[in-house]
Design brief:
Layout (H helix, E strand, L loop, with lengths): L15 E3 L8 E3 L36 H8 L8 H19 L6 H11 L6 H12 L4 H22 L9 E2 L2 E2 L1 H5 L1 H22 L5 H15 L4 H11 L7 H11 L1 H14 L4 H28 L2 H4 L5 H4 L5 H5 L1 H17 L6 H16 L3
Antiparallel strand pairs: 1-2, 3-4
Helix pairs in contact: 1-17, 2-5, 3-7, 4-5, 4-11, 4-17, 5-7, 5-11, 8-11, 9-10, 11-12, 12-16, 12-17, 16-17
Amino acid sequence: MSSLNLGAWTRPSSMLTQVSRSRSPSLLLFNGLRKLPISFTPSKSPSHGVSSPGFPSFSVSAVLTKENTVKGSEEEKPGFNFDAYMLEKANKVNQALDEAVALREPEKIHEAMRYSLLAGGKRVRPMLCIAACELVGGSESVAMPSACAVEMIHTMSLIHDDLPCMDNDDLRRGKPTNHKVFGEDVAVLAGDALLSFAFEHIAVGTVGVSPTRVVRAIGELAKSVGAEGLVAGQVVDIASEGLSDVGVEKLEFIHLHKTAALLEASVVLGAIVGGGSDEEVEKLRKFARYIGLLFQVVDDILDVTKSSEELGKTAGKDLVADKTTYPKLLGIEKSREFAEKLNQDAQDMLSGFDPKKAAPLVALANYIAHRQN
């Protein structure tokens, strides 16, 4: 497949042009419609060992490195302890996940599900869901089923992404990938089971929320992971490997769907079940889309600047697979500038909300921008 017509993947839109900062790529803002591409033009475009299935060993280091702690916290206003927030929410999410996916018959599939689901991770998506819910007046308990669901789907995507037919990776979160431990057949089924259970968990576990909002949340999550979301991004990503004509527009399409869609769903689900107005939901959707793309830009930078030991996964695999990345198109410095701009644009979307309630989302945006793994 030599080329792809992105017009078949994206929806028409009217977009506003935002003037970039000095030496930064320009960025086109999107309206409230779903899945619109963010586009920018650079000044010059270059050519182109199994652990226990439980979680008692989970530690702060799985959430924050020293560098993350310093850089993610120093910009926050006094009075909000980001480190304590991350630790508290991660522990509660891990406990909820452990209870949701208990070890039962058939044990093999539940062991495989728990192996990847409880392997640590930063739990950024569940935290975004909870923070968005609390921002619009909801509670942590109301958001938790949705928070767990997005983490289940995220874990599914990692299990499947690591398979030999996809990225063929041996390491994930510092441990052997699921198929290396349980075999490819069980790994595929473990991912499938997590995907289906995520929707069941929202439907059955969400309490105190109107059925209309629960159904709306399920619809949002389904769209984020299907042929208009994660799957779309993955398909175009696979088809683009080794091509010399992959430009910024196509790269953004891939990551707005493959990475940003589930981050967007995390925030939007929290806002919906928390009782947010349509205006609040759409404003938070834009915030999430910015940080979703930010997450991938940072991921691309880390892939070429950090070791496998530092990342907890195989470093440099994008280069080996001849994938197009932001550093490949823009260079490291321009990619870092773009990341900073996305972070600022995301935080601008939080204006108008209670600053105290918005503090966790501001901190999480900074954390995503400055994370080291």
